[in-house]
Amino acid sequence: MEKNTIKQDSGSTFIKVISYLCVAIFALFCLFPFALMISSSFMNEQEIVREGYKLLPKEISFKAYDLLLNNSTQLVNAYQVTIFITVVGTVLGLFMMSMAGFVLNRKDFKYRNFFSFLIYFTTLFSGGLIPTYILMVKHLHLKDSLFAMILPGVVGAWSIFLMRNFMKAIPDSLYESATIDGAGDFRIYWRIFIPLAVPSLATIGLFSALGFWNEWYNGMLYIDTPAKYPLQYFLQRMVSQTNLGALINSGAVINTADLPTQSIKMATAVLATGPIILLYPFVQRYFVTGLTIGAVKG
């Protein structure tokens, strides 16, 4: 009996060691591109051309960051725009998608299957670019408006269904008892659903925030004023040769003989991804729970 127990313990330990080793190797593979991006952003341009990107540069150079920070006013404006659309879009999206999931899960709402089908239908077909552009510019009058970058990403069909599936894990007795006590639909949603839906809200909020933080396409389509450019679109224009020429003409101090055309790409990636990475540790503990609940419940 003791020998069998010892064998089981040794086998369990061996499996754990192998599992931890595989996870560690996978984590290193995931971290390597990010570490290479950071180190390459500090490399000298000649060294990149001569030897390519590498983790340990021979010479540390800040020319790429100097080039980006020479226009600190525009960079700060781009950060402010991106933070604004990320915060407003994420909060508004969570509010609307959680309410939609709440309604679609209510068994006393007889049209819930019909509206669920309409939401699902949008995942298969869309109006296309030209009708969307006409809607945003001609009918909604959102040309050169920050809300042109917010409204298209506020609601997602997948997130609505995730919220609805999460609702199925909440006992109906809670709603029944709240109704008996005289609580209305919105109060039940706000006082019962929201506190219990934190894991699902954190998961959807992370995806939504990432989408708004990486926003550049709608900014390219609808925004004309440079002060309203989101961060990603602003940095994309910074690395283009046309924009570098405009910076030189505007009086920016740039050494064209040693222009960091390669390292600036990595520097822009660091500036763009760095802040949003800080958000992940705060929602990590809810992330797996939210995805698991949404996947198990059908």
Automatic annotation (TrEMBL):
Keywords: Cell membrane, Membrane, Transmembrane, Transmembrane helix, Transport. It comes from Paenibacillus tianjinensis. Residues 79-283 form the ABC transmembrane type-1 domain. It is found in: Cell membrane. The keyword ATP-binding does not apply. Gene3D superfamilies: MetI-like (1.10.3720.10). It comes from the Bacteria. The chain crosses the membrane at residues 20-43, 78-102, 114-134, 146-167, 188-213, 264-283. It is a multi-pass membrane protein. Belongs to the binding-protein-dependent transport system permease family. This is Carbohydrate ABC transporter permease.
